[in-house]
Design goal:
homodimer; mainly alpha; DNA-binding
DNA sequence: ATAATAAAGGATGTTTTTGTCCTTTATAGG
DNA sequence: CCTATAAAGGACAAAAACATCCTTTATTAT
């Protein structure tokens, strides 16, 4: 479904959002330890997300990654789009290039419905929403 | 979502089902031409599906792939499971190994709902169902 | 029997994704 | 200013996915 990069990216940004809500920045080592992801690989992903203004970062002592005020409303779909693009939401389920309403593949409509509900779910879920359950210990980012 | 192998596999088996309904077998060259897929790669996929009894084949002149009587009721999910396994239906959306009802990831329930609706769609759709629209020229397997 | 046909199977090559390592740049604190 | 820290960035390595090629086996028709 999502690429590994995207899975790590989502888990990392949720963790960052949580730390951010507590007014703290999160370093890459800490992040990867908490979400059980490979450090260097995840660092690349966060670099990209930072360049794309999904998350913010500062270098140096006490530096790290965080969500700035304007980014508190970031939704999961923003993270997914930044990492995997939107082929998941626009591409044909059977991989047919020119699949469309007028020239549909055999599962066009059924697939579209599922894809849309996935998209809607990602659109309505913000990182900050998810931190609440995380902080209550109701959900987990590793194991 | 699905692997390339799975996309080709589904398109090929739908085409085979259609030819089969007309009492014909389909050769690999013909199949790949009609679905716009790479020949040798698709041949491997069909070999696997044949070994797994999803489709049948005969060698030699007038040979080819077909659905035998007992396989006319094959559902899309059988093809997907044979090629991609069932990680799409059982795995965690965020790639967390031990994600479960008791130790859920942050999107566990939302993701499960979507996954289930995908699974149900694939379970209720048979290859033979899809051939009807194909034969009417309402849906397409390439371009 | 023999030749032609078409799938089966094995080996190999390419590309993409995933993952690691090392150097450079920016920042904070002494 | 100098040093330590932590992200940024580039180069490289491993694994998986995607794809091709060539030989073998089974079947049909002559």
């Amino acid at each position: 479904m999502f690429s590994k990069a995207c899975e790590y990216g989502i888990r990392a940004t949720i963790y960052i959002a949580s730390r951010s809500r507590q007014g703290e920045r999160a370093g890459i080592k800490d992040i990867c330890k908490e979400i059980g992801a490979p450090e260097h690989f995840t660092a690349k992903i966060l670099q990209n997300l930072s360049r794309m203004k999904i998350i913010s970062s500062v270098k140096g002592p006490n530096g790290g990654f965080y969500l700035d005020e304007g980014a508190k409303n970031i939704k999961l779909i923003d993270v997914v789009r930044a990492i995997d693009g939107d082929k998941l939401f626009t591409g044909c389920g059977l991989g047919i290039k020119e699949c469309s309403e007028t020239k549909p593949c055999p599962i066009h409509n059924e697939f579209k419905a599922i894809r849309n509900s996935l998209q809607q779910m990602l659109e309505r879920t913000s990182l900050t929403d998810l931190t609440k359950d995380l902080e209550k210990g109701l959900v987990f980012l590793k194991r």
